[in-house]
Design a protein that fits this description.
The protein has 270 residues and is of the alpha/beta class. 40% of the residues lie in helices and 14% in strands.
Length: 270
C-alpha cells in the first residue's frame, strides 16, 4: 500500500533516469556480469552504464536508434544486450534473485508449487514468428509464464499466439525443471484442462475452478498472482507490444523485467 513513508522509500528522483540502478541495486547484479578481460583493449564504457541503457530501453520502450546521448553508443549497447541474451544472463540472474527473495521472506529457496497462465501481445512490423489468437482476436505472440505462489517469475516461454494454452503447458513445465526441480504442483485455469496437458506436463496440473453458483467475475484462490505478475511486467513500455524480431530477444526482455522487479524489492528491503 502506498503511504508517504513507502513513497519516500521508493523515490527515484535523485537518479538521472528513474530506470537507472542505485548503488544497492547495482551490487546485486554486478556479480553475474562478465568480468573485464585481463588482456586486450580495455573497455571504453562502464558495465553499469551498459546495463542502465538496456533498462532504459526496457522501461521507456524507445527504439534502439533513439537511445539518449547520455548512454554509450547504441551499437555498443545492442552488442552487449545480444551477448546477455545469447548467454541467458537475465534468466540466470532472475533465478538467483528468486531464491534470494524467497529466503528473505523466510520461505524455502526453491518453490514446491507454481501457477501457470498465458498472455497474448500484439506484434509490430519488425516481423518474426507470430500467429493469430482466435480467443483474443489478436495477431502476435503468446507469453506462457510460470510463477511461484507469490508471483515471482520462474520460467517464461514465448511463441506464436496461435499456440493454445493446453499445447504450451508441457513445454513450459519441462523448461522449468532444470532450475526449479522441486515444484510438485502447478495451478492453472480451465484453459489447461484435458488429457494433452496431463500427458505432456511432468508436473501435475490442478485446475482452479469457479465456486459453485458464481455469477460474474471473482478472484480465484492462487490464480490471481500470475495476473499480478503480468501487470508488473506491463509497467515496462517495451513489453506493451512485442516489438522484437526474434523470440530470444522477447524472452530476454521479459526475464530482465522480472529480474528488475526483484532487484528493486530486495535492495529497498536492505
Amino acid at each position: 500500500m502506498w503511504t508517504p513513508a513507502t513513497r519516500a522509500q521508493h523515490n527515484r528522483d535523485h537518479l538521472r533516469y528513474s530506470s537507472d540502478l542505485t548503488d544497492a541495486e547495482w551490487a546485486l547484479i554486478e556479480p553475474v556480469l562478465p568480468k573485464a578481460a585481463a588482456t586486450g583493449r580495455p573497455r571504453a564504457w562502464p558495465m553499469r552504464e551498459i546495463v542502465n541503457a538496456v533498462l532504459f530501453i526496457l522501461r521507456s520502450g524507445c527504439p534502439w536508434r533513439m537511445l539518449p546521448d547520455h548512454f554509450p553508443p547504441r551499437s555498443t549497447v545492442w552488442d552487449w544486450f545480444r551477448r546477455f541474451r545469447d548467454e541467458r544472463l537475465f534468466e540466470g540472474l532472475g533465478h538467483r534473485l528468486v531464491l534470494a527473495d524467497r529466503e528473505r521472506c523466510s520461505r524455502p529457496a526453491s518453490p514446491s508449487a507454481a501457477v501457470m497462465d498465458s498472455q497474448t501481445a500484439r506484434t509490430c512490423e519488425s516481423g518474426g514468428p507470430r500467429g493469430y489468437d482466435g480467443a483474443k482476436r489478436i495477431v502476435g505472440r503468446k507469453r506462457h509464464a510460470l510463477v511461484d505462489t507469490d508471483g515471482r517469475l520462474l520460467t517464461v516461454v514465448v511463441g506464436a499466439a496461435s499456440v493454445q494454452d493446453r499445447d504450451g503447458a508441457g513445454p513450459l513445465a519441462r523448461a522449468s525443471r532444470h532450475r526449479f526441480p522441486f515444484v510438485e504442483r502447478i495451478f492453472a485455469d480451465r484453459g489447461y484442462q484435458g488429457e494433452r496437458v496431463r500427458r505432456t506436463s511432468p508436473v501435475p496440473v490442478e485446475i482452479v475452478r469457479p465456486r459453485p453458483g458464481q455469477i460474474g467475475f471473482a478472484v480465484q484462490p492462487r490464480r490471481w498472482v500470475v495476473e499480478r505478475t503480468f501487470a508488473w511486467l506491463g509497467r515496462n513500455r517495451r513489453l506493451w507490444k512485442d516489438a522484437e524480431t526474434t523470440i530470444a530477444s522477447s524472452t530476454a526482455f521479459l526475464h530482465a523485467a522480472a529480474a528488475n522487479v526483484l532487484i528493486r524489492r530486495i535492495a529497498s528491503a536492505e
